[in-house]
């Protein structure tokens, strides 16, 4: 970024840095030029891509990444894996942002299993290593809900 603003376009001659980077990205009202913090902006864009994996799972990009990196799970449960691409590592680096802003919506509960899913308060889950887990193996949350007849 400094080379763009202060360089002369020649690789042998260095330009003079007339102003520090901190002043360049400071707001105009404080004497800066209001440049964005590119690291934060990049992290936000990577988090947005991760969010699209969750909200638009049928998009082409989401289907490709799911097939390659998390075929049996979700973006939240995915691992970096063996030999990941730079893009995947970057999107995974921003997962904490998506996780911090996401909330579970149980809905009908038909697709959420009782075991090993973070459906309890504060994202906690019931693990399958407890002694009575075999009683609720492969049973979904909707079996725990009361259904009311609207008639």
Task: Tell me about this structure.
With 151 residues, the chain is mainly α. The chain has three domains: 1-35, no CATH class; 38-101, no CATH class; 107-151, no CATH class. The protein has helices at residues 2-6, 21-24, 38-55, 60-69, 86-93, 95-101. The mean pLDDT is 85.
Describe the main β-sheet briefly.
Answer: none
- Count of domain modules: 3
| Number of separate helices | 6
Mean pLDDT: 85
Q: How many DSSP-defined strands?
A: 0
Helix content: 25-40%
The end-to-end distance, rounded to whole angstroms, is 66 Å
Name the beta content range: under 5%
Low-confidence stretches: none
Shape summary: elongated
List keywords for this structure.
6 helices, single chain, 3 domains
């Amino acid at each position: 970024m400094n080379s763009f603003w202060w360089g002369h376009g020649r690789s042998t001659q260095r330009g003079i840095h007339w102003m520090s980077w901190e002043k360049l990205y400071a707001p105009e009202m404080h004497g800066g030029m209001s440049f964005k913090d590119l690291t934060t902006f990049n992290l936000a864009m990577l988090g947005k891509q991760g969010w699209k994996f969750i909200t638009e799972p049928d998009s082409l990009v989401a289907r490709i990444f799911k097939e390659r990196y998390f075929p049996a799970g979700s973006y939240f449960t995915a691992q970096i894996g063996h030999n990941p691409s730079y893009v995947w590592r970057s999107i995974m680096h921003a997962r904490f942002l998506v996780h911090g802003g996401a909330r579970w919506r149980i809905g009908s509960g038909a697709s959420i299993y009782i075991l090993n899913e973070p459906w309890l308060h504060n994202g906690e889950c019931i693990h399958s290593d407890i002694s009575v887990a075999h009683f609720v193996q492969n049973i979904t949350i909707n079996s725990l809900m009361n259904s009311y007849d609207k008639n």
